[in-house]
Amino acid sequence: MNEEMARYFTRPDLKAAKKRGKQEVSVLQFEHIPEEMRGIGDGKRYMIKTYGCQMNVHDSETIAGILELMGYEATDSEEEASVILLNTCAIRENAEDKVFGEIGRLKTLKTEKPELVLGMCGCMSQEEGVVNRILTKHQHVDLIFGTHNIHRLPHLLKEALMSKEMVVEVWSKEGDIVENLPKAREDGLKAWVNIMYGCDKFCTYCIVPYTRGKERSRRPEDVLAEIRDLARKGYQEVTLLGQNVNAYGKDFTDREYRFGDLMDDVRKIGIPRVRFTTSHPRDFDDHLIDVLAKKGNLVEHIHLPVQSGNDRILKIMARKHTREHYLELVRKIKEAIPDVVLTTDIIVGYPGETEEQFQDTLSLMREVEYDSAFTFIYSPREGTPAARMKDDVPMEVKKERLHRLNRLQEEISRRKNEALRGEVVEVLVEGESKKNPDILSGRTRTNKLVNFRGPKHLVGRFARVRIDEPRTWTLKGEWVEDSPMDQVGS
Ligand code: 5AD
Ligand code: SF4
């Protein structure tokens, strides 16, 4: 690659990203914006387009926080923006296709407005193939940075503003923890809180361990202080984030403190609702189940990806759990929390998946009775072990399996929601319904969307709603007036 094409140049290296050494995690502090970059965005606007998971959504809040410290203000208009950043997702090919489409489309704007800084960050930046393609085919991009160096944005933006060449800085390291990062949170009611970063599971299909580095946990003091601060600011709900939250604390060398301990401490904080995502069945221990069963602000919803119901496929996926282990875990969870809502992720059409093996996934779905499921067709990711396996299930078969799986889930979801008919549920009212401004919408503790007619002053508060029209994906209900719960958290 020609050095002149890019000024700052550390390109991604998947081999280096795969390494897991013994080195301790460093906890760095985000200090301040360098003198020369303060106020650089005064009177200017930024726009961040976020793709993918909640981790990315929250990273965008950090990026926004940094930009705002530099004086930039948010905008929804591309024409108004001086900085446009695409915070990208690499999990499946279609996610990447969308981003490349967007980069191509933004070329016109960049040509009309050369002073615009067009940048890409997030998981796609961590991929060698993607960065090479941008360097060769999309020279109108000004800046590429990765998931490990978000805190470097002020320096990188300065370079991008000064330089005519593309600025590329992507670190393929195991990763540090950076505390004290500013956050411009999108929502005043619900907040994301990182508890850990990275993943060491290396499921054979998954790019995340390469793009996000090794598993590393934030110190409990930092997590708890952040949640207490959010509670003081009036937030009603937090979602604890990690690629594999159940591995929380495994990396601490100076203490025995795991995810169950963290949840037990979070339970004592005065914030009405606490969620977490995502769980891996392998590290889900009995202590955590006991803590979750205490309920209070710990809601009865667990997202528990299974990926497949067949042991042979689970083995090829290197999932490190069997069907039996998973079902036993589900049994224990349901015993401890009888009203728990379980949701999952499933991949169909894995290399070599037979009809019988797929049938095992259907039967597991029937057995567990998830309230909902995210279902995906397997998508080979360059650099992962599965990408070297023969992707031998024809696309039509994959699509047909996905269709059958979705029909079954629909049937179960409908049945589950039907069971709520006539029940009164607690709803955190988020705002007006997207389709009809006369209707309010919010979520139950189990994260189900509820639409109901009610006064606008309920927005931001808890309301009791009687479900009178359950549907497959949403619930319609009637507000139960004069309920003491209106006051919860206010
Ligand atoms: N192809 C299809 N689905 C994938 N997922 C992760 N990697 C792939 C892939 N290569 C799914 C898994 C995971 C969810 C976030 O995305 O189901 O749990
Ligand atoms: Fe990917 Fe598996 Fe890690 Fe989840 S647990 S992020 S699927 S490697």
From TrEMBL:
Protein name: tRNA-2-methylthio-N(6)-dimethylallyladenosine synthase
Residues reported to bind [4Fe-4S] cluster 2: C199, C203, C206
Residue runs in coiled coils: none
GO cellular component, one term: cytosol
Assembly with partners or alone: Monomer.
Binding site for [4Fe-4S] cluster 1: C53, C89, C123
Pfam families tied to this protein: Radical_SAM (PF04055), TRAM (PF01938), UPF0004 (PF00919)
Name of the gene: miaB
Residue span, Radical SAM core domain: 185-415
UniProtKB keywords: 4Fe-4S, Cytoplasm, Iron, Iron-sulfur, Metal-binding, S-adenosyl-L-methionine, Transferase, tRNA processing
Group of enzyme by EC: transferase
Origin superkingdom: Bacteria
Segments forming domain MTTase N-terminal: 44-162
Function text: Catalyzes the methylthiolation of N6-(dimethylallyl)adenosine (i(6)A), leading to the formation of 2-methylthio-N6-(dimethylallyl)adenosine (ms(2)i(6)A) at position 37 in tRNAs that read codons beginning with uridine.
Record field: catalytic activity: N(6)-dimethylallyladenosine(37) in tRNA + (sulfur carrier)-SH + AH2 + 2 S-adenosyl-L-methionine = 2-methylsulfanyl-N(6)-dimethylallyladenosine(37) in tRNA + (sulfur carrier)-H + 5'-deoxyadenosine + L-methionine + A + S-adenosyl-L-homocysteine + 2 H(+)
Swiss-Prot/TrEMBL cofactor(s): [4Fe-4S] cluster
Compartment annotation: Cytoplasm
Cofactor binding mode and count: Binds 2 [4Fe-4S] clusters. One cluster is coordinated with 3 cysteines and an exchangeable S-adenosyl-L-methionine.
Gene Ontology MF terms: 4 iron, 4 sulfur cluster binding; metal ion binding; tRNA-2-methylthio-N(6)-dimethylallyladenosine(37) synthase activity
Gene3D superfamilies: Methylthiotransferase, N-terminal domain, tm_1862 like domain
